[in-house]
Amino acid sequence: MLKQHLQFKLSQKLSPQQIQLMKLIQLPTQAFEQRLKQELEENPALESGKEENDAGEDDFSDTYDEGSDSESIDAEDINIDDYLSDDEIPDYRTQTSNYSADDDEKSVPYASGTSFNQHLINQLNTFYLSDDEWAIAEFLVGSIDESGYIRRPLSDILDDLAFTQNIYTEEEQIERVLKIVQELDPSGVGARSLEECLIIQLKRKEPTESITLAINILEKSFEQFIKKHYQKLLQKHNISEDELKIAISEIEKLNPKPGGSYSGNTRIIEHIVPDFSIKIVDGELELNLNGRNAPDLHVSREYSNMLLGYKNAKDKSKSQKDTVMFIKQKLDAAKWFIDAIRQRQQTLFITMNAIMHYQKEYFLTGDERKLRPMILKDIADTIDMDVSTVSRVANSKYVDTPYGTKLIKEYFSESMKNEQGEDVSTKEIKKILETVIKEEEKKKPLTDDKLAAILKEKGYPIARRTVAKYREQLDIPVARLRKQI
Asked: What CATH class is the domain 415-482?
């Protein structure tokens, strides 16, 4: 028998407007501009326009309406005038001193030119090659990765030539053609290992005693060289410390990734546009929101007239009703989008303002040791917003400071207690660790145990494994690999 029953359940659901706002908050400036452009193309009721009056000099908080209405707009009582561009400028178009004047240079330049692969193919035209040799050379060039290496064994390339190119050859011939490919520029391209890459570059140089010794070391003692077993190198090659130092200096001048040096390489070029800027004015911090985040938007006058025409019409046909429903939908979307942008501006500024004041000592001095321990919840509690909102702002936004352009999330760090029981930022400890390693004696670099002991003396009692973790996060090698002659 079928049983039926009623159940009451409370649940939270996000409205489409809230979802739209969260997505907009997450976007950095460049992506936001693309989203704005898309909305303007898709919604004919939404228009953009230049500022006609610069009279708006109100405080930033006055720029936003805290009670943004995100409810559906009814055709009979929609207040179009609040969203029209008229002599009296609405508050969402008011420009305040909190926006930086960076409206120029809105187009992002991208590099163009010949690809790295084509650059190498063009050079092959200068060699006299048979048809088979050309096909093999072209295949080898196509196997070179963005760093300039051929990572695949010649046996695999031999099989691929047979199956995909219908070329049957021997590994010896592939090896001969590879030698030709390795003569291309940049020097070292086409190498199968770091050792081979460095040797190719050294052999291109004018031969000297130090170059010859460097080649000899790489060919006969590569393992000892990369592990920095300098005493073994001195004994094996029967040379002095000065001779070894000069040879190592020659090797250090080489490029371990020759492909990366080609300016026409088809890599993605990331153009960072700061979302905020912080300046020090008369000893006080001044925060500005990038002006690109404050577009001038208004509802289309033409669409409002169409709606008013429908309201004034005596006879309303079905087609007119369908038309007004479309107009209503577009006007709704335009209003929601303008309100969402207004709330986005407010959220971005309030969040970054809280971060700036939380890390005031750092922003005034630029000393990373002054960074306070700060987690997302600290800022969320300060501005009375959700942690996820702070995360959306911090993860994808950049701030231009007197000390460089930084990703906002870099200012967040965990804390640990020093010997005085005070909370200190892990970034502060990393900075001190980096300074200690920088000042160490390079002939006898400090081990992780010694580094832990030094940090303890400075009032930071942390374990050796924690030192190792921080060192790896700073991309600093172990003591043995930091050793110099």
From this structure: mainly alpha
Which 3-state string (H, E, C) describes the chain? CCCCCCCCCCCCCCCHHHHHHHHHHHCCHHHHHHHHHHHHHHCCCEEECCCCCCCCCCCHHHHCCCCCCCCCCCCCCCCHHHHCCCCCCCHHHCCCCCEECCCCCCCCCCCCCCCHHHHHHHHHCCCCCCHHHHHHHHHHHHCECCCCEECCCHHHHHHHHHHHCCCCCCHHHHHHHHHHHCCCCCCCCCECCHHHHHHHHHHHCCCCHHHHHHHHHHHHCHHHHHCCCHHHHHHHHCCCHHHHHHHHHHHHCCCCCHHHHCCCCCCCCCCCCCCEEEEEECCEEEEEEEHHHCCCEEECHHHHHHHHHHHHCCCCCHHHHHHHHHHHHHHHHHHHHHHHHHHHHHHHHHHHHHHHHHCHHHHHHCCHHHCCCECHHHHHHHHCCCHHHHHHHHHHCEEEECCEEEEHHHHCECEEECCCCCEEEHHHHHHHHHHHHHCCCCCCCCCHHHHHHHHHHCCCCCCHHHHHHHHHHCCCCCHHHHCCC
Instruction: Please tell me the least confidently modeled range out of 1-10, 172-181, 213-222, 229-238.
Output: 1-10
Cα(131)–Cα(134) distance, rounded to whole angstroms? 5
The residue whose two tokens read 């172990």 is 478
| Interatomic CA distance for residues 161 and 135, integer angstroms | 9
pLDDT band at residue 427 using 50, 70 and 90 as cut-offs: confident
pLDDT digits (tens, 9 = 90+) for 297-309: 777 777 767 766 6
Residue pair 307/328 in contact by the 8 Å Cβ criterion = yes
Domain ranges of the chain: 16-99+274-401, 116-261, 415-482
Question: Taking the alpha carbons of 354, 360, 365, 369 in that order, is the dihedral positive or negative?
Answer: negative
On the question of pLDDT at 96 being above 80, the answer is: no
Alpha-carbon distance of 424 to 462, in angstroms, equals: 12
